[in-house]
Amino acid sequence: MNIDLPLWPCIYGSPFATGSIRSRPEDFIVIENLSFEPSGNGEHAFLRIEKTGENTEFIARQLAKFAGVRQRDIGYAGLKDRHAVTTQWFSVWLPGKVDPDWTQLHSDNINVLHVIRHARKLKRGALSGNRFKITVRDWHGDQAKTEQQLEAIKAHGIANYYGLQRFGHDGHNVNKALAMFQGVKVGREQHSLYLSAARSFLFNQILAARVADASWDQALPDTVYMIDGSHSSFKSEHPDAEIVGRLAEQSIHPTAVLCGIAKPAYNLNAVEQAVIDSYPALVQGLIACGVEMDRRALRINVADLHWQFVSNTLLVLEFTLPAGCYATALLREIIVFK
User: Fold this and answer.
1) Reaction catalysed by this chain (predicted)?
2) Per-10-residue mean pLDDT for the chain, 338 residues long?
3) For residues 326 and 13, what is the distance between their CA atoms, to the nearest angstrom?
4) What are phi and psi of 289, to 5 degrees?
5) pTM for the complete prediction?
6) Which one is catalytic: 81, 222, 277, 294?
7) Hey, which CATH number is domain 36-124, 3.30.2350.20, 3.40.50.720, 2.60.120.260, 1.10.10.10?
């Protein structure tokens, strides 16, 4: 079986414009917001680094080499794209050691903005969200209708699709996951990437089905809901007026399963089960690899959304998304990428 990525449906109709993103790194600016304040004391040096045209793991390797520590002594909260200007935090474990001269790391692509100590290693996911500033070049379309879509996004949020970058070049990582499940040997880094691609594909398929029947932000029987701004969740077998009201005010969101070893507390609803039944090789492969079931919100709120048409062909957007969410999930609602 070979799986091609479909064109997952949009929430607010088809985009009324085309445009290019990532024409240059500074067109895609990301600023990471930690979910806590470093204490100022401890064995871990926390570095706030601005990087241009480099991925997170490359910076982590550079830090380990520069500080003379093991790769596993480096921490970071999230992976950031290479083709961007991103500001993110790293931690370096330096027990009983003074900080090296971090300014020696400065280059055209790396800039150390701030250093502070903390007691614990920076863990994956320790973010409150990410702030984006995105420039869309060569924009052509209907400005009035695009602004209507942006107003709808500001008011009602977006579908929480995984971005295409999750699936590798031309989406091939899903099929590489299938090959891995069938016995093809891969490296540890690729193993993790392929597992993520397989699970993300299944989630997007479930979300697409909910978008298609207009239930992506609605209460259904046997649904697990996630509280906005957290990973806390609860199940409701039969939605009542309170659930409907909280959904309308966007303080909770419906979720879909992230496939893996089943947790007995949450049974699957009919939409989830239908998608899972359609891709048994992916599901069984994830289970065989020991991936645990989880949940992900189908909808996310977009905070502090602002936009400006700088010219007839240049659109600049600024907004904040929760950790783990993709700016391209917003952009795909308003432009077709060139």
Assistant:
1) uridine(13) in tRNA = pseudouridine(13) in tRNA
2) 92 96 95 96 98 94 96 94 94 96 95 97 94 98 97 98 92 95 92 96 98 94 92 90 96 96 76 94 96 96 98 97 96 96
3) 19
4) -85, 0
5) 0.93
6) 81
7) 3.30.2350.20
